[in-house]
TrEMBL record, chain A:
GO terms for biological process: L-amino acid transport. The keyword Nucleotide-binding applies. PROSITE patterns: ABC_TRANSPORTER_1 (PS00211), ABC_TRANSPORTER_2 (PS50893). InterPro entries: AAA+_ATPase, ABC_transporter-like_ATP-bd, ABC_transporter-like_CS, BCAA_Transport_ATP-bd_LivF, P-loop_NTPase. Pfam families: ABC_tran. Keywords: Amino-acid transport, ATP-binding, Nucleotide-binding, Transport. The lineage of its organism: Bacteria, Bacillati, Bacillota, Bacilli, Bacillales. This is ABC transporter ATP-binding protein. GO terms for molecular function: ATP binding; ATP hydrolysis activity; branched-chain amino acid transmembrane transporter activity. SMART domains: AAA.
Automatic annotation (TrEMBL), chain B:
It holds the Pfam family BPD_transp_2. It is found in: Cell membrane. Keywords: Amino-acid transport, Cell membrane, Membrane, Transmembrane, Transmembrane helix, Transport. This is Branched-chain amino acid ABC transporter permease. It comes from Lysinibacillus telephonicus. GO terms for molecular function: transmembrane transporter activity. The chain crosses the membrane at residues 12-30, 37-54, 60-82, 94-112, 138-157, 177-200, 220-248, 255-275.
Amino acid sequence: MLELENVHAYYGNSHILQGVSLAVPTGKCVALLGRNGAGKSTTIHTIAGLHKSQRGSIRFKSKPVESLTSYQISREGIGLVPQGRRIFPSLSIRENLTMAARKNLKGDTSEWDIEKVYELFPVLKEREKNMGTQLSGGQQQMLAIGRALMTDPQFLLMDEPSEGLAPVIIDQIGDIVAKLKESGLSILMVEQNISLACQAADEILIMNKGTIVWKGTPDELLENDEIQHKYLGV
Amino acid sequence: MSIYIVQLLTGVAYGMLYFMIAAGLTIILGVMNVVNLAHGAFFLLGTYFAFTFMSLHLNFWLALLLAVIVTAILGIIIEKLLINKLYGKELEQVLLTFGLTFVIADCAKWIWGTEMQTIAVPELLNSSITIGEMVFPAYRLFVVLVGCILAVILWYLESRTRVGAIIRAGVDDRAMVAALGINVRLVFTGVFAFGAGLAGLSGVLGGPLIGMYTGMDSDILVTSLIVVVIGGLGSWKGSFVGAILIGLIETLGKIWFPSLSMLIVFLLMVVVLMIRPQGLYGKVVSQ
Ligand SMILES: Nc1ncnc2c1ncn2[C@@H]1O[C@H](COP(=O)(O)OP(=O)(O)OP(=O)(O)O)[C@@H](O)[C@H]1O
Ligand SMILES: [Mg+2]
């Protein structure tokens, strides 16, 4: 569904992505692991069009998207759940969701709307009048996921959904990701939490210094202490 | 005493004119991060367009509507053709919009000449309301009413509509708004045109009060920049309060200290900035 081929990206003179190639098949969840500063968020931002790649190709549903702007990429069906959630503080919880709503132009009912998001996250409905930033970290993560779902995506980019959350909440996030996958979404998830990644993903990629250095199943990673030690500092 | 009450109305009416122009200026600043120094020129063009439409024997109301629309369209053209290229480049924006003020002012001189003109008060409002000894010109009351209606409309748009939510979100985190599939560029064009239209509206409504003369664009720009600073950058509510304050102080200042009224306005700005550096309604920006 999503394919990156030899993608290079820079911040000024620093060469951050040094030829990233990866693929996320339809209906699968792929986890991208790696140390701080490995270039994981840059990969996510480059796919979402928030950062421009210098070279290489990004194809979504076989269509090249690397030269599209971020709003066009979103309309192609890629939803972003960014690192740090980036909830809009000036908006209520409800507004955070409705502002992202995608009117389905073809007239057929869209997969996701505010009722479905509230069904998935009832706590958001209870507190819909509150401002987005009055939520706990876990609830803000739900809001960020719900907001991305409102754009009616077929594909989700999730950047460290477990960051800063308590272990119980991280388990909940794992369940949510499983539900999203069941609903037919394909997911590329950046994670630092190995157990969440291995629980949620069908395939694991490890990134180091701007390239993918290892690829395998969750079980292969859990058995491979050397890789865990070398690239993930376990 | 009663003379002062009548002057209060005049002050508030002027304040409403400042509010209409400053609201656009401050919204453009808050949403797009552009200090639009050409905003006074939109005010001037609004007046002159209406003057032209009226000299073609259109009535005041039709001239008002057309002038606002034409000014807004001009705003769209300027945003699409010029400002669009300079997002994020503050110095270039300042030079561009400053340059535009000269270009537009010279075009205005060329088209309309340098003679001082006025727009006649529309017949419907060419009367006054007498309460006791006080005589209130109906047109000034009307301007105050329009300003208040505009404030209600802005409040509604900002807090009760999806477009308003998108614009507030854009002030918080523009890139995230784009990543949610919203064409931020289009929002910018719309905001700029809306602001230009408001400045045009202010210009037309100001026609019967201020008249039209060469240099009015820079006079009004300075005043509305002060309003924006006093009110707090990006806050139209602050502009509402700030504009009324300035309108009142300027008008009363002209009675008490005729030669110092502009100085008093600047002093007010200094005092506000000393007490609240972010302006009356401004948010504290942490860098
Ligand atoms: N806006 C920026 N300007 C300049 N350099 C940046 C910028 N954003 C990231 N970098 C640099 O790019 C490199 C990769 O950053 P990136 O955010 O992609 O890492 P990451 O793998 O997501 O790390 P983390 O786990 O901490 O989120 C880092 O060295 C970082 O310092
Ligand atoms: Mg990151």
